Amino acid sequence: MAAEPNKPISFPKTAALQQGATTVDDVTRALPHALGPEKSLLSSMLQDPQDYIGVAIEEKLTQEHFYLPSHATLFGFLIELFEGGNEVELVSLVQRLLDRGLLDRVGGPAALTDIYTYAPSPGHFRHHLQHVKDKFVLRSIIQNSNEAIAQAYDAPDEVAALLDSVEAKVLAIREGSETNKAPTIKQSVNEVIEQFQALLAGEKGAQGISTGFEELDRMSSGLKAGEMFVVAARPSMGKTSFMMNMVEHICMDLGKPTMVFSCEMSAFQLVQRLVFSRSKFAMSQLSRGYTPTKGDLQRIQRAAVATSSAKLFIDDTAGISINELRAKARRKKRDEDIQFIAIDYLQLMKSRTKQAESSREREIAEISAGIKGLAKELGIPICILAQLNRGPESRSGKSLGVPRMSDLRESGSIEQDADMVGLLYRTAYYAEDAEAKEAEEGKAELVLAKNRNGETGHIPLTFIADLMRFENGAPAREADG
């Protein structure tokens, strides 16, 4: 019978859904599992621990992959013995479990003997392992879906935040990151020693991603995975140019997939800058009646080809929210394995939470923390531009125009979240007359005011205004003098 007009429709399945089932019938259904393959894996590991426990570790099998608690407990104990260099043998295993008070939790001696004598075919180990993993994925999907359904029925105020959380959990299931992401202290120490040895051997790959600016690379050892690099300046200092110079080097010279989020300039404008900056051709010459030479045209053509073949992805959504940016970045990391993200710029982004609506400082803090969290989640460096307040203009004498970290607009959390903070400025911008401006023309400096893992200091640069390009070192006339 059709529902009467304007009469509320009841949903009798809601209570069951909120208890963790997709339908009422699912309340009595067991979660997906594969007890036979679980038993097969444990039997192989008991009979030939050196081979099969090692394979399980390589395949990142964890206790969470096992459906039966007794199987999970036994697997965890086998891994502990193996990594501790202890012999895995049935009689001593029973005694060790008894001594630790774990024998009953694995089902007692009879259960251990039953698993040991299960005698699966050795050639089926990886097939059974994948079967166990697949069932774990299905259980994870059900669990996360049920949690999302329950939260959705609670009618949360922050719908965008819920959507972001749900998407992150689904992607985490795909990548296996929820159970395999956290390294052990032993793994971390090994990585530290390996990197140290590589650095001693002079291997550049042991450092982070090169920015293309030699002194910055020396002081920072490159842009490292999980780090947030904030480049801040007053308007018209060349922040976007500096960022795009790094992008050009990383995606075109190093060949690393890169994503740019531009809240201020269009994709067309950014690509135009890339092509003409790389070709060293100033478009302003055309307005003065200059006719490009054959050499100019060849350089422009080469730059255009290099740009079009680069793995560069540009999103020019104006006023993008932190949740939307994270969602797009996750997809691009999954699909294209991007290695670097650049964002222009922080104060043009949005956070749509209730707390952010009441406070601009709180909004900026949420965006800053979100960017840092994204860098760690994706395991790549992120460079984000930021505006400074009017502090540099209020200074006098030799300090006129020189930025400080305290000039970061609207939130001290930017300074707290960032692993590196670079303050960019050009002295010619603050020159009091034409003569002084000419003397300072081209001079630029990046003040590395914060470097969590290295030294700080002043990095001289040359700014070529016609090309919107920064280059290494001070202008030639100053260096020669």
* CATH class term of the largest domain: Alpha Beta
What is the oligomeric state here?
single chain
Helix content: 40-55%
Principal-axes shape call? elongated
CATH superfamily of the largest domain: P-loop containing nucleotide triphosphate hydrolases
Instruction: Note the beta-strand portion.
Output: 5-15%
Main sheet: strand order: 3-2-4-5-1-6-7-8-9
Number of strands: 9
Low-confidence stretches: 1-27, 177-181
Helical/strand content category:
alpha/beta
pLDDT averaged over residues: 80
Task: Please tell me how large the radius of gyration is.
Answer: 29 Å
Give the CATH topology of the largest domain.
Rossmann fold
The number of helical segments is: 22
For the terminal residues, how far apart are their CA atoms? Answer: 93 Å
Q: Assign the CATH architecture of the largest domain.
A: 3-Layer(aba) Sandwich
Main sheet overview: 9 strands, mixed
Number of structurally distinct domains: 2
Structure description:
This protein has 481 residues and is an alpha/beta fold. It has 2 domains: 35-180, DNAb Helicase, Chain A; 205-480, P-loop containing nucleotide triphosphate hydrolases (Rossmann fold, 3-Layer(aba) Sandwich), CATH 3.40.50. The chain has 22 helices and 9 strands. A 9-stranded mixed beta sheet has the order 3-2-4-5-1-6-7-8-9, with helices on both faces. Helix 8 packs parallel to helix 16 (322-336), helix 13 packs across helix 15 and helix 16 (322-336) runs parallel beside helix 18. The radius of gyration is 29 Å and the shape is elongated.
